[in-house]
Design goal:
9% helix
């Protein structure tokens, strides 16, 4: 999907925010399928687009100030492309990853990954880590999720540790999606971990109240003071660069 299409979506969202309904309209050729209200003052709207490869999925994230992040993953939950907003910066997965992320392998028990990311402002980095099933399940708002344990490190091309995180997330095997859980985040690479939790609270589907909402509902009056809104987790591994706000 072209960058212009993403920017058009932002304009649509801006218009929606000015209206009483405050709902997100996916770009032309795309169809929404779920809204997730989460802890940490965040709401995410999920959608799919006809022009994409089968299995690709998009997500638009909003905090109390509006949209701040849009992303696309593929059927294996690889990070295909993402956009930080205001200013808009695009990040893409580098070709020929050393160890591609594989949701299929994770469902079998565990998955390691090692891949590169590039931004259109010239910044590049490498991400390594793993996900594995803990064997535990949780039910949130009637939805059964599998718990995972993860650890990842992002480094500069020169090898300097930029950021890392560890903890737990949740996955839905059929949806092929990650959701945030209680985790620890080190934004300096110096081992100073901060607890974060962007766990889902409500899953909202077409026809239900709050579907495609752009206003987050939970913990907006007690947003973590240690992290700016743009770094509240949305499944830490699924938005590696965005955890740093860029």
């Amino acid at each position: 999907m072209a960058k212009a299409m993403i920017l058009a979506a932002v304009l649509v969202v801006g218009s929606a925010l000015a209206a009483p309904a405050q709902t997100f309209t996916p770009p032309e050729g795309c169809t929404g399928f779920m809204t997730v209200q989460a802890r940490g003052c965040r709401v995410s709207n999920h959608y799919r687009c006809e022009a994409d490869a089968p299995g690709d999925q998009w997500r638009a994230d909003f905090d109390a100030e509006g949209i701040y992040f849009v992303s696309r993953i593929d059927v294996e939950t690889q990070w295909v492309e993402s956009y930080d907003m205001f200013p808009t910066v695009k990040q893409t997965l580098d070709a020929n990853p050393e160890d591609p992320a594989s949701f299929t392998e994770l469902l079998a028990g565990a998955d390691s990954f090692a891949f590169g990311l590039s931004k259109d402002n010239g910044e590049r980095s490498k991400v390594t880590g793993y996900d594995r099933l803990t064997g535990k399940t949780v039910v949130i708002d009637g939805i059964r999720l599998l718990q995972t344990e993860f650890d990842f490190t992002e480094t500069s091309i020169g090898g300097t540790v930029l950021r890392r995180a560890k903890g737990n997330e949740y996955i839905h095997p059929d949806w092929r999606l990650f959701f945030a859980g209680p985790s620890q985040w080190d934004g300096s690479g110096e081992g100073n971990y901060v607890p974060v939790d962007g766990s889902p609270v409500q899953f909202i589907f077409p026809g239900e109240p709050g579907y495609m909402a752009t206003e987050p509902l939970f913990e907006c009056d007690a947003l973590m003071s240690a992290l700016p809104p743009a770094v509240v987790p949305v499944g830490l591994r699924q938005r590696l660069h965005a955890l740093s706000g860029g």
